[in-house]
Input
Amino acid sequence: MSVVTFENVRKVYPLGKQQVIAVKGASFGIEKGEFAAISGPSGSGKSTILNMIGLIDLPSAGSIVIDGTNVYEGINLDESQATDSRWAADSDKKKKTRTTVPAKVDKRITGLRRSHLGFIFQNFNLIPVLNVYENIEFPLLLAGKDPASKSPVDDFTKAQREEWINFLMEKVGLTDWKLHKPAEMSGGQRQRVAIARALVTKAPVILADEPTANLDSKNSEQILSLMKTLNKDKDLQTTFIFSTHDARIVAMCDHVIHLLDGEITSDEHKEGSDVYGKAEEQ
Output
């Protein structure tokens, strides 16, 4: 069963009086448990697709289904680019527009982001004043009353929550760094914190945009090996989706969607390597 499904998804950005079509009718499905990559050169649309999977960017047309939920059901995406009345101006002044969706759909998006999606960023995006344990725990403190945003971890007792966070710290090799803050850690260690934080809500999909861009080759190898190990962990059952032009990451993936100029050129299923750097050695 697909955990992410795109059906004829388009993304158009306004550029002055012109329009830039960043994604042109993309259709694909990513199955639960895959180690997948959206791959292509700069400007191919891969980050735009990852942002639409992450419900950060609104598509201009098409359908996106996350773990069985049709995210934009009930709205006309062609009409979602609306002028906000607060920015309305006379014809001789610049008008600003923003993407808008009905409150009900916005609530659905917020819930899915918390319960179904984890994010690993190039720049780690850790909170400087919090230690490792607190940074990992932070998404759990954002629980709301909306059932759509509920994570399985929300029902844990305090003791169970602590056990779960300690389990993740052990998985990423940071048990001895529990009380350290980001400034006291290397880039590779900070990325490990970011991985554990992405996993803490037990989200079924983890998104990573060029996760090794700010790491040296040794740390990149360690981080990708860790992700592959976590992907295979039956207790976690996590799907990883990368946006990357790194051939070494692509070589590790068992599903690769190749992009060029906003179009899918191939949708490839294969046996991924367990070793980061294999493509570089060939």
Observations:
- The two ends are 34 Å apart (CA to CA).
- Residues 136 and 257 are 30 Å apart (CA to CA).
- The chain is about 30% helix and 25% strand.
